[in-house]
Amino acid sequence: MAVTEPRVSGGDFGLGDEEDLSNLKEQAVVISRAKKPQLTHQILFQDNGLKKVVKDFPKLKFQGKGHEFEDLKVLMAAYKKWLKELYPYKDDFEEVIWKAREVLQKKENTETGEESDPRHHLHMLRFQYKKNKANAGRDSETAKRVAENRAKALERKRQREAQAQLPADIDDEDAFGFGAPEMFEDVFDFGDME
Questions:
Q1: What are phi and psi of 115, to 5 degrees?
Q2: Are 128 and 54 in contact (CB under 8 A)?
Q3: What is the model's pTM?
Q4: 62, 74 in Cβ contact below 8 A?
Q5: Region Disordered: what ranges (predicted)?
Q6: Taking the CA atoms of the chain, what radius of gyration do you get in angstroms?
Q7: 91, 92, 112, 89: which is closest to 35 by C-alpha?
Q8: Is residue 62 within 8 Å of residue 73, measured between CB atoms?
């Protein structure tokens, strides 16, 4: 028995038998994949980057003591969702975390030629977070009340410091308030001390 090669016809592809398959290769559209961008400081420090983490993650609801595993799941799910929005390429979550860590350990040059320092960016994010947290929910009435309480506290501190100061009539020999050495001559021998 002779082995025959299977014949492929246009009918197999819904084209009909009369079509010549040799020119299909020329007609095929070449789909080029878009090259995924590198993970850079620019991506990490844009508004939906680490700024979003600082802004949104404090709003996460945790169950607290006794539910640490569930809380960790909530935190990891939030990180995965954020990272997928930030860098939507089919990389593994752990791989992207390692890439981000590597990027954040090194300075890099921007497109304008300036040097981008990740430590500076992270310090600025922390500063903005603390500044916003300190001013959150303060209206003019609250700010006025805070200023008044601060003034009262400073006044009480001055009064305590004034009471703690040594009286002016105590000399150097009586710095601890035990009285003059003459009072203790009968108990102690101070003969050679002068």
A1: -90, 130
A2: yes
A3: 0.49
A4: yes
A5: 133-176
A6: 38
A7: 89
A8: no
